[in-house]
Amino acid sequence: MLVIENLHVSVGDKPVLRGIDLEIAAGEVHAIMGPNGSGKSTLSYVLAGREGYEVTAGRALFEGRDLLAQAPEERAADGLFLAFQYPVELPGVTNMNFLKESVNAVRAKRDEGPLDAMQFLKHVRAKTSQLAITDEMLRRAVNVGFSGGEKKRNEVLQMAVLEPKLAVLDETDSGLDIDALKIVSEGVNALRSPERSMLVITHYQRLLNHIVPDRVHVLAHGRIVDSGGRELAEKLEASGYADYEATEAA
Amino acid sequence: MNASIDNADHVEDLAGERYQYGFVTDIEAETAPPGLNEDIIRFISAKKEEPEWLLDWRLKAYRHWLEMEEPEWAKVAYPPIDFQDAYYYSAPKTSADGPKSLDEVDPELLRTYEKLGIPLVEQQMLAGVAVDAVFDSVSVATTFKKKLAEAGVIFCPISEAVRDHPELVQKYMGSVVPYSDNYYATLNSAVFTDGSFVYVPKGVRCPMELSTYFRINAANTGQFERTLIIADEGSYVSYLEGCTAPMRDENQLHAAVVELVAHKDAEIKYSTVQNWYPGDANGVGGIYNFVTKRGICEGDNAKISWTQVETGSAITWKYPSCILKGANSVGEFYSVAITNNYQQADTGTKMIHLGPGTRSTIISKGISAGRGQNTYRGLVRIQPKAHGARNYTQCDSMLIGQECGAHTVPYIESRNHSAQVEHEATTARISEDQLFYCRQRGLSDEEAVTLIVNGFCREVLKELPMEFAVEAQKLLGITLEGAVG
Q1: Residues of B in contact with A90 (CB under 8 A)
Q2: Residue B334 pLDDT
Q3: pLDDT tens-digit readout, A11-40
Q4: What is the 3-state secondary structure (H, E, C) of chain B?
Q5: What is the distance between the alpha carbons of residues B186 and A235, in angstroms, rounded to a whole number?
Q6: Where are the domains of chain B?
Q7: How many CA atoms lie within 13 A of B222 on its CB side?
Q8: CB of A218 within 8 A of CB of A233?
Q9: pLDDT of residue B456 exceeding 90
Q10: CA–CA separation, B262 vs B358, rounded Å?
Q11: Residue B426 has pLDDT above 70, yes or no
C-alpha cells in the first residue's frame, strides 16, 4: 500500500526527516510514536502534500505510484486521508455541504458520477450514529465552535464518509477526554478492514490501547530508531523516550 | 458575437466603430445621432409617443444635469466619460445583427453558460442568437401574463405604463429618486429609454416571483433603464433583476434608476444578480455601472428588502437605499460584491430612519481578488422622530491575494437618543490551512476557494430566491477563476 524509502525532508534550511524507511501493507495498522519535535507531524503533512516541506531525498510510493509528485487533491482521490491534529474551521460552510463537496470531488476525479441528495444522505446517516454525531452538528459550519472532541469525531466522520485506502491519523487523541477517546477509537476501529491501511501518529501509548496496531515505530530526530510489535508501545509507556533521545545525542 | 466582449474598449472606440455605419441626423431615423441635447430628448420622447408632462420632466432633468458635476467621492478610478460621444437612443435591435447560431458565439462565453447550467434556448437568447422560434418563452410569457392579470398585478415595460397607466406613473415616478437627485440619476431621468413597471394592488400577494418572465424578456435591457415598483397596502411582491449569465451588451455606460414604493403593511423584495462584462484580465473594457436604487417605506409596517450579488462590471457604483418613513417599517440590505482582476466596486446602502420604531439590517460581504478594489460605503441616519429606531450593520471583507484592496466607509448619524445603532466589521483572508484542508479532502484549489467564498457569503445568498441562489453560488466560483494558484 505505502512504501517510504530513505525520505529526507527539510523545512526551510532545517532537515526534519532524515531518512525514513517504512512499509505498510494493505490492512495493516502502524503506529508512529515519538517525542515532540521528532518529525511526526511533518511526516503526515509530507504524505498529504502540504506546501512548505522540501523533499531533499528519497521517495514515497502509494500503491506503486509516486505519491510525492501528486497534488494533495489527487492523493485524496487516490484514497489517502489525513485526520488533522488541528482540524480547520470553514465559516459558513456547513458540515453536510463540506462532506458532499468532498465526496463528489473525489468521485469526479475517479470518473464516477456525483451522488444525488438521497444517496448521499443515506451514506452519511450510516456513519453518524456510531460517532455520536447529531444532525445539528451536520448543519453547523465545519469545525466552527466545535469542542476538541467534536472536532476529532468530525475528522473520523469525514474519514468514514470518504472511505480511504490509507488513513493517516495525526495525534487524533490529543485533547480528548477518556469518553471522547473511546468514541473516536471505536469509530476508527470500525473502519479497519483487510483493504484499508492506517498510520496512527501519537505521542502517547494510551490511544494504542484502543486502536491496537500491528506494528509500532519510534521516531526520534527525524529517523525511525526502533520498530516492533504492540509491546514496544507498552515498553515506551514505562520507560519514556529518554533512551532514544539520549542515543541520538551520544 | 458581441462587440462588448471582443472589442470592449472605451466609450470613444465603441462610438467610433458605430459611426462607420453612417448614422444620419434625420430626426425620423431609428437611431439618434450621438451626443446629448434637448433635440435628442425630444426625439426620444416623440419616439415613445410620450405625453407632454413627461417630456417637460425629461427636459427639466436635462437642464439640471447641465449644471451638475460628475461625482468624484467614490473610490473608483476611470478615464473621463465623454457624454457627447455616446448614443442615447437606438431602436430595439433586430435579431439579424446577431450571430446566426451558437457556433458563431465566443466559446469562452459558452463555457460559462455551460458551467452555470443554462438551458440551450436561453443560451441562444443571452448570446443574442437569432432565434425566431423561441416557442417556450412565448408561451410561458403568455401564461404568466394571464396569471398576473387575474391577480390584478400590472407588470409591463415602463413605456407601456406611461401610455396605459399614466396616472400611476405620473404620481410615483421621481417620488423616491427626484430628477435632481444625483448626476447619473438625473441623466437617466432625461434620457431613460425603458425598464419595468410593477403595480401590486391592495392586499394582493403577487402570485409568482417576477423573475423567469423577466429573464426571458431581458434580452434588450438597455443602458438607461428605469424601473418603478409600487406595492399598495398589504401587498407583497418579489422581483428579480438581472441574470447570472454574462449578457451581451454594447453600451459601456449604464446608469439605471430603480424606485420602490411600499405602502402600509406592504413588502417588496428586490433581488439583483449583476454580471455585466467586467473587462478582460488586464482591465481593458467592461461596463461602467452607475446605479441609483432607492425605496420608500411610505406606510406603517412596510418592508423593503434589497439583496444583491454584484460580480460583473468594470466599475460598480450603487447604493440601494431605504427611506423608512412609516412607523415600524423595516429596511434590509444584503450584499455580496466581488471584484477580481481590475474591477472596482464602491457599493453599500443608505438607511434613512424617519419614523418611530423603524428597523434596518445591513449585511455586506465584499470579496477582493486580483487587483480588485472593493469598498463598502454605507449611511445609517436616524432622524429626530425615529424613536426607538434600530440598525444592525455587519461588513465583512475577504481578501484573496496580495494586490487587492478592501475598504469600509460607514457613516452613522443619529439624532435620536433612544436609537440603537450597531456596526461590526471584519476582514479575513483565505488561509493556507483552509485551502490545504479542503484539498486534502479532494477539492481542487478553485473548488476550495468557491466553497470557502460561498460559506463567507452564506448569510446573503440564503436571502436569494432558491433558483437564483444555486446559480449565484456557481457564479461566485466562476468570477474568481484564476484568482488563486
Answers
A1: 434, 437-438, 451-452, 455
A2: 97
A3: 999 999 999 999 999 999 999 999 888 899
A4: CCHHHHCCCCHHHHHHHHHCCCCCCCCCCCECCCCCCHHHHHHHHHHCCCCHHHHHHHHHHHHHHHHCCCCCCCCCCCCCCCHHHCCCCECCCCHHHCCCCHHHCCHHHHHHHHHHCCCHHHHHHHCCCCCCCCHHHHHHHHHHHHHHHHHCCEEEEHHHHHHHCHHHHHHHCCCCCCCCCCHHHHHHHHHCCECEEEEECCCCECCCCECHHHHHCHHHCCCCEEEEEEECCCCEEEEEEECCCCCCCCCCEECCEEEEEECCCCEEEEEEEECCCCCCCCCCCCCEEEEEEEEEECCCCCEEEEEEEECCCCEEEECCEEEECCCCCEEEEEEEEEECCCCEEEEEEEEEECCCCCEEEEEEEEEECCCCEEEEEEEEEECCCCCCCEEEEEEEEEECCCCCEEEEEEEEEECCCCCEEEEEEEEEECCHHHHHHHHHCCCCHHHHHHHHHHHHCHHHHCCCCHHHHHHHHHHHHHHCCCCCC
A5: 84
A6: 3-479
A7: 23
A8: no
A9: yes
A10: 14
A11: yes
More confident residue, B102 or A134: A134
Q: What is the pLDDT of residue B127?
A: 58
pLDDT at B328: 98
The answer to whether B369 touches B401, Cβ cutoff 8 Å, is yes
Cα–Cα–Cα angle for A74, A102, A39, rounded to 5 degrees: 55
**Chain A closest-CA separation from residue B108 CA (Å):** 23
Q: Across the interface, which of A76, A92, A141 has its CB nearest the CB of B441?
A: A76
**A104's grid cell:** 463528489
Quote the CA–CA distance of B294 and B261 in Å, as a whole number: 9
More confident site: A10 or B286: A10
Pick the residue from chain A with its C-alpha nearest to B433.
A88
In angstroms, the CA B475 to CA B112 distance is 9
ipTM of predicted assembly, 2 dp: 0.96
Task: Judge: A91–B456 Cβ closer than 8 Å, yes or no.
Answer: yes
Q: A151 to chain B, minimum CA–CA distance in Å?
A: 13
Nearest CA in chain A to B437: A88
A→B contacts (Cβ < 8 Å), by residue, are 48-51, 71-73, 75-77, 81-82, 84, 87-93, 97-98, 101-103, 105-106, 109, 141, 158, 162
Q: How far is B451 from chain A (nearest CA, A)?
A: 7
Neighboring chain B residues of A93 at a CB cutoff of 8 Å: 451-452, 454-455, 458
Amino acid, single-letter form, for residue B277: Y
Instruction: Cell numbers for A207, please give them.
Output: 490511544
Q: Are B398 and B367 in contact (CB under 8 A)?
A: yes
Closest C-alpha among B308, B285, B298 to residue B259: B298
Share of chain B above pLDDT 90, in %: 52
Tens digits of per-residue pLDDT, B145-187? 788 889 999 988 888 899 999 999 999 999 999 999 999 999 9
Within 8 A by CB and 6+ apart from B66, the residues are none
Record: contact B442-A51, CB cut-off 8 A? no
Residue with cell 508501545: A233
Mean pLDDT of chain A: 92
